[in-house]
Each structure stands twice: as C-alpha cells, then as structure tokens.
Amino acid sequence: MTGNQGRLGFFETPQRDRLTGVLVPPGPLELSVEEVRQLWSFVHGDIMDGSLRRLLRASLGLCPRHAWAYAVVEVELWQAGAGARGGHQPFDVTILYEDLLEHVADGLDRKSGLLHRHPEEVLVPVGPCRICQDLASPDLPGLRMGYANSNTEALTVEANALVHTTTWCLETVGLWRDRVCPDCDPGAPEGAGDPVLLCRFHLAGRGPLPEQLRHAVAGRLREIRGRMRHLTESMTDYGSPAGAVENTSWIEALGFFAGWGLPLYLATDPREAWPAPGSQGTEQGG
Question: Which residues have CB under 8 Å from 171's CB, separation 6+?
C-alpha cells in the first residue's frame, strides 16, 4: 500500500482523515443542495463507468458521510423500479457494495508475506472520496443545473426527510441491531462485544489483526454479500422476492464500510432516547 509503512497506525490525522473521512455520529445527515446535486448525478450513471469503479475499489467507496448520503439519495429520490417495492430501494448501492465486500474479504484472507506484510491494510482506502473531491473543485461560472434539469433544492428537502430510509431501518432493526459494530454503538460498554462485528474503521484501529480474526471477518463479509446479491436480484424484473434477512444486508454492508451512526439514529425510539417532560432526567437537567 503506497505510503503505508509498518503497522496500521500508519496515517496520522489529518492525513488519514483526508483519505478515510470520519465516522458520522448518530444523527441526521442534513445534506446540502450541492451534495444532493452531485450524488443524484452519481446515481444516474457515474457508477457504471469502469474506470470509476476501479477508483471506488481503491477508495473503498465513499467517505462515511457520502456513503450513507449516496444510499439516502437513491432510496428517497428514485421513485420507480422493478421488484416488490417498485422504487425507493438501494439498487445501485448494492451493486457497488457487493464488489467492495468481495474486494475486502479477499484482501483479509490473503496470506501475509514479503509483499503483503499486513493484509488488514485492505481496510484503509488509498484514495479520497469521489464526492468530496467534486465538492472541493472550483465552482464553474453560470447557473448550476441539477441532473436532467431537476429541481435540486426540492430534491434536497425530499432527501433530508429520510422517509423511506427510516422505513428500511425500522423494518429490519430486529435483525441488524445485534450486528452493530460495538465500538460504533454508544450504548455498548467500551471494549466489549465481538471483534468480528467491528466496522472497518475500528478494525483498522486495532493494528495488525490475528489471522483467525481476519478470516472470521472475511467470512462475515461474504455472508452479507450473499444475502445482498439476492436483494439486488429481487430489484430486477426476474429476481425472486427478498425476505427480511436480505433486506437488512445493505444496511449491514454500509455499517461495515461507513459506520453505524445513521441507522442507529433512525431506529432509535425518541421516547427512549430522550426523557419525558417532568421525568427525573429532565428535572436533574434543570
């Protein structure tokens, strides 16, 4: 891996953050108009470009914010499609992350040697987020138009409502809640939980990984990929319907690559997250 020497403590912040992004804490994304403009165009064709797919493999997709934003924009804004839902589903997302799951699993299973001293380096991207790059580019003169002259301001309001993404998270929370990265879960004791469930960020932060753990994580990623392939096929004209275990696969995949902040936020019952008025919790705060 170019520029990575020795252990997986290799990149110091902010250099590491420039390439990997930072994990999104539980909360809404609040996408900007320009983010939605870029992501809506990305959903409509950029992902199908072969050279871009290679770049996305090197960067492990997008940074955490834009990985979840990519899914949100597709799920919220794509109104028509094949399959039982007929739209508002993560079709492009599953295609990209099927490829990335296989890429990382293969890297983790690679034997260490002179050329690959640390197979777990596959957990860290070697290029920046494509959307972050586009957003940082100098503004072009003239009016900024949305994809196919779409009203990006209206689309941004619709995307930020998170209606359909919330539905997906709530419908599947009973299956994915016990598979959350323990280090992403604010309710989990520090250092507790199964390390096989760690997201790529927290796995990379543990330095060189034991071979047994690497193989176990690779096996889990391939299991997610198998379910996600069924989900992808269910969103085509000829695929069989997906069940709950398949429907949760894309959330687990993005949780691994981008952390669990957004689904944890969307699946939290606000009555449990905040004390009721007049309760002991609110009285202590006053």
Answer: 244, 247
